[in-house]
Amino acid sequence: MSGKLISAICFKLFAIYFIVMAVVSIPSIWGLYATFPDLDKTPTLPAIVTAITLIVAWLMTRKLWSLSNSVIEQFPDTDSPKPDLEEVLLSVLGVFFIVSAISQLPTSFIGIWSGTYVSVQDVAIYVTYLIGPSVELIAGILLAFRASGISYFLTKLRRAGV
Q: pTM of the entire structure?
């Protein structure tokens, strides 16, 4: 079995794993919501968080699946590296950042929604919980969907001697 087939199979397995983990995380979103006694018990917030989680998981699964197909189409049968490998690696890194951020955001949103804001410090704590995953999500989206532009920019920087 060639290296490109192994890579394609790994991408497809990761895509399947990603969508399964998103579906498995849904009960924890609802369970976390149920643990806050101060919340109005309408299911709007966990339904929105669940929908967003599933939509983003589906989009990321499609991106991984297309990466798998592009590995099969673009790379030759030999194991020699190709310049487009950097784009693939940047896309995979972006998907990793997105998965990592998405796993933290539902907890942060439900925590903020349920909070009773006593002081400015409480609000500041909730904002700091959101900053890290939000920046990671934005970086992941840029890496996953703009990998070719970032690869081109990095190539220009390398040529300039930076």
A: 0.51
